[in-house]
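Lab notes, practical 5.
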Amino acid sequence: MAIDSEFEGKVAIVTGAGQGMGHAVARRLAHGGASIVINDIDGEAADQTVSHLESYGHKAVAAPGDVTSSRDVQMMVETALREFGDVHILINNAGILRPTPVVDIEEDEWDLVVGV
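Output from the prediction step:
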């Protein structure tokens, strides 16, 4: 059930929505009336976010996958179109953190971090 109607009738894909900021953004969009496609590289975390949203009466579906994989991204979009018919909003929130301080990071590790 929407708390307000700011996003009523919209479909949003939120990447990295299994926890943290992505989870919070997905909740806000759902509370505003949007149908949500939950993406996370951790399929279990994506499913948990979907269950959380559905427990409040929101429409949500999991589309687990790696945003650095064009195949996974295509499957995510296909899931959105199949389940909800369109995509209006994309929140590209997926990201990774490395334990190395930025001033000490090697180029390959940097490429991995910014590549997501």
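Observations recorded by the TA: The CA atoms of residues 1 and 57 lie 5 Å apart. The longest helix spans residues 70-84.
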